[in-house]
Amino acid sequence: MRLGLALGYWGRGPSLGHVPLAQEAERLGYDSVWTAESWGSDAFTPLTWIAAHTSRIRLGTAVAQMAARSPVTTAMHALTLDHLSGGRMMLGLGLSGPQVVEGWYGRPFPASPLTATREYVDVLRQVLRREAPVELAGRFHSHPYRGPDATGLGKPLKPITHPLRPDLPVLLGAEGPKNVAQTTRIADGWLPLYWSPTRPEVYGPALGDLPEGFLVAPMAQVRVCDDVAEGLLPVKTMLGFYIGGMGHAARNFHADLMARMGYEAEARRIQELFLSGRREEAVLAVPDAFADEISLVGPRERIAERLESWRKGPVTDLLALAPDPHTLRVLAELNSR
Asked: Quick one: signal sequence residues (predicted)?
């Protein structure tokens, strides 16, 4: 099982510690470093900055949001950074949900998310292969554009720049069983959310027969500390926000996933508290048991014991949300045993 460093996205401003953490991860032998985006900082610019300050570690987005860019624009970002970094780029994508897609990006949330994702990846692959001009008569992504307001002058094109690698890895963030199953067919890897090594069945039967070389790369908060309850508070804070506020009360994919993992009543209670403005109560309502099973928190010996269960399943890459160099170092030592 390889290790990656997940840096997430910025909060109020730039996270000055990200480059030093990425450099330390590279020194410790971590395989990859990942950036993200929500509705603030973008995923590609910080990753480019990190690329300029490292030399070996692979670079991934976990995730870049599909609604933020057309598939050809995303392909342009990926092939450009792949060239600049010497072939270190991995493209992780996510569809997000209606609240963000329509509220932030000002675009309709696709009526068929699976079809929209499949078309997006199809266009990306065409750009990266550069075998012919990009053409797709898609429901959501049409190249050239042939909508009712089209001029009719659109011309199929292929990229001027020759991609460094036609097989640049494409990974997808997927939560529902049907989406996970499609991911194993059309992508090179999967970025699970809230991975529990004891509950792989939650994601459906697709994990039983994965293609050779397919990446399974969940993110997990990792923290070496003496007090487990205190160490779980950042995990619960994240869960309170995602379960409670990252989506509408009637349509929140993160809350639905928590429910499928056996915490349906708790998920609905967190939503209720968060959406009524009682955010601190929402965080405290997150069960310690749930926060604990999707993270690696506690003393070194406890993390070592729990790490074994992560290595026994289909996980190929553990993307650690690790807040400090000490935690990075301990995780690297434990994983090399």
From this structure: none
